[in-house]
Amino acid sequence: MVELSGRQATVETLRVERRMATFDVRSLTHFLDGGKEMTETAERIMREFGDDPLMCARNDADMTLPEIREAVMKRILRLWEMFQSDDAEARDKRVELLAVHDPQLLTRMGVHFGLFFGTISGQGTAEQQEKWGTPALLLQIVGCFGMTELGHGSFVRGIETTAEFDSESDEIVINTPSDTATKWWIGGAAHSATHCSVFAQLIVKGERKGVHAFVVPIRDTETGWPLPGVEIGDIGAKMGRHGIDNGWIRFDHVRVPRMNMLMKHAKLSRDGVYTKPAKAQLAYGALVMGRTAIMRDAANALKAAVTIAVRYAAVRRQFSIDEEGQGDASESGNSGGGGGDGIASEVQVLDYQTHQHKLLPLVATAYAFHFAAMRIKQLNDSMETSLHSGDYNEALPLLADVHGSSAGLKAMCTWTTQAGLEVCRQSLGGHGYSAYTGIAVMSADFAVNCTWEGDNTVLALQTARALLATSKKALAGEKVVGSMSYLSELLHPRRHRTFAVAAADAPSTHTNTSLMSLLRDRCLACIRSVMERMDGLRAEGGSEAAVWNECAVDLVECAKAHCIYFIAREFHASIEQEGGVAVEGLDGRGVRPVLRKVLRLYLLHEVDKDAGAYVREGVINSKEARHLHTALRSCISDLRADAVGLVDAFNLSDSILKSPLGANDGDVYGHYLDRVRSAHPPPSKAPYWESVIKPRVSKL
Fold this sequence. Notes:
With 700 residues, the protein is α+β, with helices and mostly antiparallel strands. It is 54% helix and 8% strand.
């Protein structure tokens, strides 16, 4: 055998890994994308991003703040041009890929088209949509979204900005009454937005009517300076997404016409008669849409991170395993293994059990999130179709169900992805700290998802509230449908024990169906337990607010358990095609079997990581927990050969990943060195050598 070294070694190693796959990778890609045609669309879009000098975003890490903000604004204009040749499906796929490729561009675009234009189209009349919506679509005005305040984020009802109706002039007076009422974190406000959809407390004849949306011009479209009465500033340095010009806005009794209040649902007449929305819950639709997008972004961010981490772990060789099977040292260290003599005798990092246990459950989680996000999007699309057609009998129950689950799912997916990104970053060893290797920047950019569009803990508690309300209906004998239909089993109190101890002696008997039953049973046990505790606290005289706060930690756990079960159920349904519609690629060589293994890994990992709770709640006993842990180890080992194939199936191009360590050809060290040399060409001399260093060292 000829021993390879350097670039040849890593390239050949990845080729060998790909030959190990037990399934047809291309077929799995088609299944994930929804068919060959959509795969080809995605590949075309990735090529367009990578080939465009402006859109490729290769040098973002080395740009100054003014440079990156200017580049992002230019990319918005370029993206708008790209949209013109896309049909609806291609446009949606382009946005989906953008979440990985350039999240700051996605956010800046999303603020304008999703939030600003979305507010106008969702809450504005036909006339208002024509006045502001059409110019927004054509980028003739640039919008921002003024909801969050310095003192209020998730608690929208607590917004302090006021919008008082002046009946004499037929105007609305927008005012910032306090420091905490300052609009804060407003994307696009600092430099570029000309208009803002301002959310404020409507006051009519001295009476507050709640929070409503108003379109307020904030900049002179000729000069770019703030309009009179509008004070705008930059909120400064952030953790990530530096290309977004987040700003703050204060209003000093700024007057706008009454018709600048968006009145598709709520109305305010010339003589000051206020008509509240007929169906206030319709406002939830925009929230669900945002959460759906974030779930998909979480899945795709995790896909990108595990692709980089698994490919690098497959080609990275470090240390050797002695006869007792012990590694010489930590497998993720950075000394050696870079291409010198004897590299073939060193062990692939992915062959270390500890590394497999870090990464393979995250691969399974990325798959699980993919299918759950697809399902939530399908439900959201159905809901929007019904809403637009005016079929409220169908839309409102669906809206309530999707709203109840999507809140917790957004929280669960983003919490898990953020933690997973850090695991993947650390798995790269010291290289994970470099901005050029991808995951460090990805993690900093993704972190905001855990707090925007609703703080995760608050959202989890929203799902918990929906679970309690649905449980009460179930216990009252009412029919329960939708994502929480399993709660009807609360009518039959029993100790849910899916496995007998005897059966647990044979881990192979733990089928995906029985493992899913464990997840369901934990949900039921968790909800039953917290309801009993809440009843006990009420009996002791506790107020509803006090009881809720006392049980909040347990309620969040209920929401998490429900979301994990939802995710697992949708993963299983997608594999087994329980919806009855065949999808291209699923019947490709080995695709369904490997997906069943991936689902099994997801299920086992979710039970194992919370085994203490399962035992505490009586779902399993300690012996069963030990056997399930053994089954988890076996499952991870069984999927080792398919690791690279599974991440390859995500089909993310090098231009999207922007990480030399995740390079598709395996030449990780060559690409890494080339990338650094390109950004910082040698030789190098410190610009401060003469002024700072030379005076000191010259004295030696």
